Amino acid sequence: MENNYFVVDGEVLPEIFSKVVEVKQLLYKGHVKDITEGVKVVGISRSAYYKYRDKVFLMTEDVKGQKATISILASHEYGALSEILETIVKFKGNVITINQDIPINKAANITITLDILNIEGDIEELIAEMQLLSKVIKINLIAIE
């Protein structure tokens, strides 16, 4: 996994990034009913929103803990979720929520939200180690708060 994460002042970034975050905030707060309405409100295309929605996040400074949400596509095999959770425990992550979909085509989507305040190492290292698990097909960092 070769993702690089940066904390950058939004003023130096292209405006599209702040508009994508604005759409996400409007959706989260319920000010718009869907993505189509949100992109119209902020003045960007749906394709621009979808291109960046999983790549741009707000850094929230006033939270007591840090949370990370990870999306995992895992093989539907015995012990897959256990291996993922063991890796989280190894890094001293604290699981807040787990949601696993019904397996389709021998693979299941798993979404895990973690408290990463006391994690050993950083979230990139944790994700890289999870990606090495034989039963993990794909893994993405969805959000950090």
Automatic annotation (TrEMBL):
Coiled coil spans: none
Domain of life: Bacteria
Boundaries of every ACT domain copy: 69-144
HAMAP family: UPF0735 (MF_00707)
Family, as annotated: Belongs to the UPF0735 family.
Name used for this protein in its record: UPF0735 ACT domain-containing protein G3M99_17870
Organism of derivation: Clostridium senegalense
